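Structure tokens please, single chain.
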Amino acid sequence: EKFNLRELCQLHQWILWQKEIESEFTLDASFQKLCYNAYTKRLPNPSGLQNSVMTELKSIGLEPQEEYRLADCGYILDALVEVNGKSVGIEVDGPSHFAGREPLGKVTLKHRQVLNIEGIRLVSVPYWNWDGNANRQEYLKLTLDMVC
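Here you go.
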């Protein structure tokens, strides 16, 4: 009752950081659950760009699990696919995810925490590599091959 939704979400991020650095400092389990629940209230909002990438992933024979919520950390991945027996997260990053062509801190944080906490590598599909690309399927294959 002392914290609003935004503050609980921020505290969830702090809890994830503590997990990531394997800190011995923890908060009460019920309060951690409250923060997690607040964080996971956010609903996905796929973009046209994201839908386009999902269509192309399917066309190269992958079965993306769209808007995939990771149970431990609560993040939602745009998609989770299996490539060569490995789970790979797909993040479709539009202009709002960047300052110029540098990813925003929240994007970098998500990539780092998903890898360190969940053990899943994320692949970014930035809008500038997608828009106007006549070889989208080849781009996806090459990008996924680089991480697998």
